């Protein structure tokens, strides 16, 4: 029988890229895309795989225990790769409750379903933001042993879900891995995030907001490198272990914005410094040595990855314009609800 993998949040940015990656790489697996299709869920990105025999879409809320329990009992999944999460820090500051509901309770519902159905592996995809912040010392990095010190409601909710996953392994013997990644970028990134927001604004000669002085540092990871890392952890990761996924590409936010402006041949006058957001962490930087010892290496530098990403957005302007306009949400209604 074909192995069945359920990917939660498979209509989102990273989960969506992972669904495509797995459908194309493993025709011998049945890939189930489970997504509630909130504002950040977009199925138009899967038009090229939606008719593949090993791709399946299920609309469901991971926090809906009855629906998730029934789904797991029916399909008997072998693997769970859990991306589904509210992930926008600014939104978590204005409405923390939904982050707790989805990221914490939703994860617990999935863990219970996985435990009840004896899944082979549960991979929980988390973030480096659970570690808190680093200072600007370039010799310091997050490792898998760094204490969790989240600073925003978003990162606190992700840290809580990480601890639940660990507890289900320690208490019930559930076979799990946790991955913690640095900032992702690449195709199909939702336009509210820094890189796609900057590209879409610059293309239209609009001002690009930069928080504070723009000196906050992030380690940038191309989403396809991230997909390869999760694939490796899924198949080769030592049960119970945490793996950090970093791109070795630290840049200030201002440097990233200026790189995009330069590549598109526009003026830096489009940069608009705005009031810094609450709890804005200074720096994230990951040491991915443990994952590299498992056999993974990033293939993109930020230079090659940014160039590829900018070109993708130029070539797919129709996609992100539909996202900004909200038209993408109509696609699900027509395709799956017959409206």
TrEMBL record:
<dbReference type="InterPro" id="IPR036291">
    <property type="entry name" value="NAD(P)-bd_dom_sf"/>
</dbReference>
<dbReference type="InterPro" id="IPR005888">
    <property type="entry name" value="dTDP_Gluc_deHydtase"/>
</dbReference>
<keyword id="KW-0456">Lyase</keyword>
<keyword id="KW-0520">NAD</keyword>
<dbReference type="InterPro" id="IPR016040">
    <property type="entry name" value="NAD(P)-bd_dom"/>
</dbReference>
<comment type="similarity">
    <text>Belongs to the NAD(P)-dependent epimerase/dehydratase family. dTDP-glucose dehydratase subfamily.</text>
</comment>
<dbReference type="Pfam" id="PF16363">
    <property type="entry name" value="GDP_Man_Dehyd"/>
</dbReference>
<protein>
    <recommendedName>
        <fullName>dTDP-glucose 4,6-dehydratase</fullName>
        <ecNumber>4.2.1.46</ecNumber>
    </recommendedName>
</protein>
<feature type="domain" description="NAD(P)-binding">
    <location>
        <begin position="7"/>
        <end position="309"/>
    </location>
</feature>
<dbReference type="GO" id="GO:0008460">
    <property type="term" value="F:dTDP-glucose 4,6-dehydratase activity"/>
</dbReference>
């Amino acid at each position: 029988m074909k192995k069945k993998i359920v990917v939660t949040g498979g209509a989102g940015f990273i989960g969506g890229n992972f669904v495509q990656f797995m459908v194309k790489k493993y025709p011998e697996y049945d890939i189930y895309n489970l997504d509630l299709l909130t504002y950040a869920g977009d199925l138009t990105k899967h038009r090229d795989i939606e008719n593949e025999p090993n791709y399946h879409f299920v609309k469901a809320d991971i926090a809906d225990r009855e629906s998730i329990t029934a789904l797991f009992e029916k399909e008997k999944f072998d693997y769970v790769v859990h991306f589904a999460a509210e992930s926008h820090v600014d939104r978590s500051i204005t409405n923390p409750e939904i982050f707790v509901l989805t990221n914490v309770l939703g994860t617990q519902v999935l863990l219970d379903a996985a435990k009840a159905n004896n899944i082979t592996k549960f991979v929980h995809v988390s973030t480096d933001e659970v570690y808190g912040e680093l200072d600007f010392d370039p010799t310091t990095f997050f490792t898998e042993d760094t204490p969790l010190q989240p600073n925003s409601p978003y990162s606190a909710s992700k840290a809580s879900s990480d601890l639940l996953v660990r507890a289900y392994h320690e208490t019930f013997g559930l076979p799990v891995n946790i991955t913690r990644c640095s900032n992702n970028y690449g195709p199909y990134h939702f336009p509210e995030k820094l890189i796609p927001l900057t590209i879409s604004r610059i293309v239209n000669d609009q001002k690009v907001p930069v928080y504070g002085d723009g000196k906050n540092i992030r380690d940038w990871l191309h989403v396809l490198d991230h997909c390869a890392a999760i694939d490796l952890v899924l198949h080769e990761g030592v049960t119970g272990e945490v793996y950090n996924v970093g791109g070795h590409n630290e840049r200030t936010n201002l440097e990233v914005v200026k790189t995009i402006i330069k590549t598109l041949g526009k003026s830096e006058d489009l940069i608009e410094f705005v009031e810094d957001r609450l709890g804005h962490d200074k720096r994230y930087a990951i040491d991915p040595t443990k994952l590299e010892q498992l056999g993974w290496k990033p293939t993109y530098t930020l230079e090659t990855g940014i160039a590829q990403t900018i070109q993708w957005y130029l070539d797919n302007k129709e996609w992100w314009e539909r996202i900004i306009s909200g038209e993408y949400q109509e696609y699900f209604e027509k395709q799956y609800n017959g409206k």
